[in-house]
């Protein structure tokens, strides 16, 4: 059955002319406009209903829902607080209430609301994915993974669920699983720059450098001169030994978004590979000032100091890196104490 929202609104407007300020008609108009994504129009109708018939739980929850869609989270919360007093333990109100609290970063309150829903109506996909997102933001990654896995069973291939679950899997270092989720998201929306960006970053972690480069090249067409994209592009080209291309990308980033620690580290590493040791040291010193205890940066700076014959400084950096990440010789392959062939 097709949803003829425009036709429904035309009929309701006729009734509204005959019976002006009819709360039922306005409420219906508001909900039809909400369904057709005319959130501002919906709010205007529902505000009129709230004046005509104050303290109606249905109207308040609808107002709260619409305000949430308009990103007016504080006012949405006020409406939903009132609705929750009038109709406690209403599943719809609790769900939206919890989701609004999530957007306001009130994670404890959000969790309480969504836990109530899970008791009243177990295995609801909306509840599970919202609670999974709350648990992720609270750094309860395993609990988040459990909720999101259930949500994916009841509502497969939902982009929100897959995106949040990918983030959780990255936190749990399940990079291959994260990549599988983002591949699904990419099928749903092939030209989403955010998806391609994170997928490229994951492929880089998995050392799928050519695939990562293909993703970030697509993004550069969709959103040219994006700092995050250019940083990942530079990092990937560095791993593929396209040092000049990496250098050019990272130079652009430094103009768009200067003083980013990760960018400075990769920039310094590329300069090292191009034998510009003093330039590399300048970048790495800046990065260390921004993030003093980053083992990745300390490893690279240790190698650069060695190339500049500052052996004592090199040893200090590499010892500190080893203290921060013991026995990690790495995935970064930078410590000259851990490899025979030093560039």
How would you characterize the largest beta sheet? none
Terminal CA distance reads 67 Å
**Class per helix and strand makeup:** mainly alpha
The outline comes out as elongated
Q: What fraction of the residues are assigned to beta strands by DSSP?
A: under 5%
Point out poorly predicted stretches: 329-343
| Helix residue percentage | over 70%
The average pLDDT score comes to: 88
Count every helix, treating DSSP H or I runs of 4 or more residues as helices.
19
Order of helices and strands: HHHHHHHHHHHHHHHHHHH
Cα gyration radius (Å): 27 Å
Number of strands: 0
Description:
The protein is mainly α and 343 residues long. The chain contains 19 helices and no strands. The longest helix has 14 residues, at 5-18. The termini are far apart. The model is unreliable at 329-343 (pLDDT under 50).
